[in-house]
Amino acid sequence: MYRMLSLRSLSRNKNKLLANKTSVVRLNPELICFQNFSHLCNQQLGGLATEEIALLRSVTDTSTKQTKASIQQLKAQKLSDFINNQIAQENVESPENLSKTSTHTSPDISKWNFVETPVIYIGKDMKEMELPNATLAEILESYRTLKEHHERRQSSEATIVEDAIEEEFLEHHEASVEEEILEIPRTQKQKSKLKKGKQTQEKGKKFDSKNYKSSEMELLARHKSFHVTLHAYLDICLSSGMINRAYATVLNYRHKRKRKVTDVEIYNILMHGYAEKGIILKIKDILKILKEDNIEPNPQMYAAIFECLGRMETTEDVEKDALTYLEEAETKGYTMDTVLNQSKFVRDQRETVLNLFNQLKPGFRPVYTPPKLLYGNHLLNSLNEYVRPIDTTAANKSDVQVGTEIMNPKAGFTRDQLEKFSKAQVELELKGHLTVKSIQKFPEANDTVKQYRKELEELRKVWTKQITMALHRDVNTLKAVTESKSSRAINLFPYVKALNVAQFTEILLDEAQMLIEGSDSFSIGLSHLHKELGRKVEARYHVEQKRQSGVLDKTCEIYSLYCDVLSEGNSSDNSRQLWQRLVHENRHDGPSLDVQSVTWPKAAVNGVGKFLYNILKNDLKINVNATSKANRQPKLVPAFYSLFRYEAKIAKEQIKPHPVLIKLYRKSQQENLKFDINLVPMVCPPQPWSTPVNGGYILAKSDLIRLPQQAHQQSERINEANPQDMYPTLDALNQLASIPWKVNEEVLDIVLEVFNNGGNAKLDVPEPPSSLPSIVETIPRNEMTGFDRFNMVRKKMTHRRKQGDMYSLWCDALYRLSLANHFRDKVFWLPQNIDFRGRVYPIPPHLNHLGHDLARCLMVFHQKKPLGPDGFNWLKLHCINLTGLKKRDSVEDRLKYADEIMDDILDSADRPLTGRMWWSSSDEPWQTLACCIEIAKVHRSPNPAKFMSGFPIHQDGSCNGLQHYAALGRDTAGAVSVNLAPSPVPQDVYSAVAALVEDSRTKDAENDVKVAKILEGFIKRKVIKQTVMTTVYGVTRYGARKQIARQLEYIDEFPKDWVWPASSYLTVKTFNALSEMFTSAKEIQDWFTDCARLISAVCAQNVEWVTPLGLPVVQPYNRSERQASSKTIQIPEHFSMDSYEKPNIMKQKNAFPPNFVHSLDSSHMMLTSLFCERAGLTFISVHDCYWTHACTVPTMNKICREQFVALHSEPILEDLSKFLVQKYSYNESEITNDGSVIDLTKRKLNRILHQYPDKGDFDLRQVLKSVYFFS
C-alpha cells in the first residue's frame, strides 16, 4: 500500500467528491481504504510537471509532519486541483472513450487475468466500472512501479537511529534529515535546505517548556534515555555476535556527542563481550577511554577483566596483568570477595574468574554475603520470631521446626508431582504459548468443513515459505543498508536478528491467526499492533537469553530444591526466605539468578513490529477463489489490507484480513485457541518474588509493577530503597500466588450449557453477536428524507457498536470458559503483581478470581479442609450474603432465613436450569448457585463437621474506602456508619445517605421544586450506591452524574425526559449528604488535594509517598512529549521519562486522595495476608474482599481486625506530613520575602504541608469487636 494522499488534504476535498454522483469514487467519512486508490492517482500523473510529480509523491506521514506550513499549503492545493480534475474528467468521459485509452505497458502484462471489478474501492460503498484489460494492466503496472519505488525508499530508511533516533538524542537536529525525506526539485532544494537548516537549529536551542521542568531537565532526559537505548542496543549486538559493531557505535557517540557516554555499565557490556573471546587488547583500549573520561570502574568491570585473563592461556604476562589489576581493584576497595559478591555472572563466567583467583591465591574460597531474611518494619516484628539463622540449611529432615504451619496452605503434593508440574511449566514457557480446545460447539465436521481445514493447513504451509523467504530477503536488505552507512549509529538490524527465522515465522503465523479471529466491526490500531508484536518478540528473546546464558538450568536446579522443601513441609520460612536461602547455598557455581533482563526501548519494539507487519501485509497472499465453487482458478491477492477509521476526528490506520480469509477460517470451524504463556495460569507453584526483578513465571518475564512506559521514577525509588523495605510487598504477592486452585466442574458444566445454547443476558452469560436483530429499513431509500438518512446512519452505527461490544464480551467468555475447561482436571496457580499504588492483581487475565460473578463462580481452592462445627453455618451465611436480600439483617436472622428457604437452595442445586431457579434472582447468581451446590452436598452428608470442602467463603469490607477515612480522622459518626463500631445489626451507609437525600428532596418538593416532585419514590439505595462508593476514590461530579443517570434509566417507570436533570439534582444532594455525614473524611480529602495541587504546581514534581509497609509510590501523571506514531520503520522520537517532565497538575491533585486510600487498603490486605500465612490459613483477596476456607473464617476475621487497628494506630497522617515537608518544602533561604506570587505560593506550600487535619476521639479498638466490619 502506498499512502499517496494526506488525510488532512483529502478531508478538505471529500465533500466535492460526495457531491458528484457520477464519480467512480465514493468516500465514507468513517472508513477510508487506500488499498486500490493509488492507481487512480497514477492515471493523472502524466498531466503534471516533473516537479509537481515529485512534490505530490513526497506526501508521506513523515514528511507531512516535517514540512512547513507553506509547503503543506502548496501540496494541499495540488491535491485539490488533482481531485477536481479527476471529477471533471469523469463527468465528461464515456465508456467508449475509456476503451480507447492507450497503454504503455509490457505486452505480456496485458495477457494476465485480473479481477475486473471493483476497480476502485473506498469505504464500505462500492462503485463498479467496466475497464478493458489493457487499461487495467496499465493501471496496475503503474501502481506496482510506484509501490516498488516507495518500498525501496522505505528500505533505505530502515534504521532506528541512523538518521532518526540518533537525531533524538543530539542537542541540535541536522537539516540533512529533512533534505533526505523531502524529494523537493533541484531548483528549490538549496534554498529549502538552508531555510530548514536554520529553523531546525533554532528549534534545537529552544527549551520545551510545555513538557519539561527546565532546559537542564530536558537535556538530562535526553541523556538518560540515550544511555538506556544504547545499553539495550549493545546487549542485542552482543547476543547477535556483533561485538565490533557495538564497540564502533560507542566510539561514534563518544566522539560525536558533547555529553560523553558516561554509564559504566555500557562499557561493562563491551568488556564482557571481548572477555568471552579473550581479547585483552580491546579491554585495555576501553580502560584507557574510561580513564580519559574520568569514569570510575566498578566490581562488574573488574569481573570482566578477570574473566578475560582467565580465558587466556596462562603465561607470565597474563599472571602479571592479573596481579596488577587485582592490586588496582584492592586500592579502590574491591577485594576478590567484593568482585564475586557484587557482580552478575552468566554462563561459565563465575567459574572462569574463580579459577583465575585460585591461580593468584591458591586455596582461595570466596565468602559470599548472606541475604537479609528479616523484616525491617516494626508492624511485622512478630513474624521475625520463626526465621532461622541464614547459616541453617533450607531443609533438614531430621529437625522438627517451630512455625511449620506456614507451609500448610502449600501442602498436598509429593516431590514427584511438583517435579512433573515444573517440567511441564518450563516446556510451556519455552514454547511460548498454550493451545487449548475451544468450548464453542460446532456440528460434526462434514466433507466441506474438512476441505476448508485442508485449505487452511495448506495455506499455513505456503505462508511459512513466504515468510521465510521474505525474512531472508528483508533482513539481508536491512543488513546491506546498515553496512552501507558510514555512520555507526544505533540501528534496527541487530533486533531483527534477535530470534532465528523459524521463531519469527511462528510468531508471524500466530499474529495472522489473531487478526483473522478478530471482530468484523472493530480493529486495533496498527501502531498498537506494531508495539504488541514487538513485545512478543522481545519476550521470546528474553526466554532464549535465559536458556543460552545458563540461567534456565540454574533456575531449574534451585526450583527442584524448592520442590523438595515444599513436599516435606518442614520449614518455618516463607516462600521468599526459602528461595533466598537456597540461592545463597548454591552461589558457589553457575550464573547469577538476579540478572535483570534488558528492556528494549519503545523505538526498537515498534521498529521490529513494523518490520514484521510489512512482511505480513506485503508477502502473505490468499487465493480469492479458494471458497468459490464456480471459479477454481487460483488468483492471489494480499491476505491483509490496511484501512483508516476515524476515532475522535483522527483517522487511524488499522489492518483487516481479506473477507475470503475470514470466510475460510470460520467455515473450517477451528477447534483450538492459542494463548501466550503469560496470559494463562501456571501449572506449578510460581517462582517466589525475592527481588523486584525476580519472581512470577519461571522463565517468562514478569513485571513486579504495572506501570505506563514513561514511568521510570517509581522503579528508581525502589532500586534506591533498602531491599528489606520491599519484603512485605514481595511476601504478600508470594503468599497469594502460593495458593493452588481448581475449577468448579459442576458449575462449569452448567455455564457451558447456557453459553452453547445462545447465552443469557439476565444471567450475564454473553450472547453471540448473531443474536442481535439486524437493522430493518422501513422506508425505501429513494423515499428517505435527509433526516431519515441521518437517523438510519446513526442506528447502523449504534448497531455496529453494539455488535462489537457483544463480540468482545462473547470472546471474553469463550476464552475464560475454554481455559476453565482445559484446567478442569488440573491444579493451577496464579502469579501476582501490583499496580503503582500497591494493589494486587493476578497476572493471567482470563482465568482468575478477580473478575465478575461468572469468573468467581468457576474457581475453588484445590486444598480441602473439614468444615468443623461452624463451617456449615458460614456456608449458609455466605449464600445469603451473595443474594443481597438481607443486607440490613443480623447474622442470626440471615441464618434463620437460610433454613427457611433450604428447599429453594436444594432445588437450585438439583435442577439449576429446570427447577424454580431461585438462584437466578440473586445479586451474584452464579456464585449463589455454586454455593447452593456445596450446601446441598453438606446437607446430605452424614457428618457435616467432617465434610471436606474447598469452597471459598468471602468477607467484604463495608464501604472500605470510607472505613479508612473514618479511621484516619478518628471520626465517630463516620465510623459508626461504616461498621467500625460494634452494632447489633449492620449499618448500611448507602441507605443512610439515601435517607438524607430523601429528606432534602422532601423539603424541596414542599417548596415546589419540580425535579424534586418528579423524583418522589425513586430515591432508592441502588440509585446512589455507586456514587457513594466511588466518592472516596475521587469520582468527579460529572462522573457521579453519569452513574446516577444510568441507574435512573434502568427504572422503567421513571420518565426518560427527566433522567439528566434528575441525575444532576441527585448528584448535588448526594455530595452534600456525604459532606454532612463524613466531615472528617472531607477535610482529609481536601488536605490531600491541596497538597498535591501545590506540590505539582509550585515544585513541578510528581506526588510521591511511602506506604506504611515501605513501598515507594509515585503518581505517574505527566505532561509527556507527544509520542509520534510508528508509521515507518524510522522513529524520530526519544521516549518520555517522568523524572524530568512536568506533572499533570489536574491528574495529580484529583488522583492523590483515592490513590493514597488505595495504598492503605492494599497495606491492610498485605498485613492480613502475611499474618494469615504465618497462622497456616489459606488466604486470597480481591482488594477489600477476603477469602478463606469455611473452617478458618473466624481466625481470618480476627487477624483482619487486628491488622486494621495496628495499621491505623500508626501516625499515618503525621508521617505523611513529615515526608512531604522533608521532600517538598522550601527552606527560608529559598524564600525571597519580596512579596511576589512565587514567594507567597512557596509559603503557602510550607503551611499546607504542615497543617494535616485534626483527629476525632473514636477508639480504634472498637473495631476488634465489630461483627460487621468485614462480613
TrEMBL record:
GO terms for molecular function: DNA-directed RNA polymerase activity; mitochondrial promoter sequence-specific DNA binding. PANTHER family: DNA-DIRECTED RNA POLYMERASE, MITOCHONDRIAL. This is DNA-directed RNA polymerase. SMART domains: RPOL_N. It comes from Aedes aegypti. One of its GO terms (biological process) is mitochondrial transcription. The keyword Iron does not apply. It is found in: Mitochondrion.
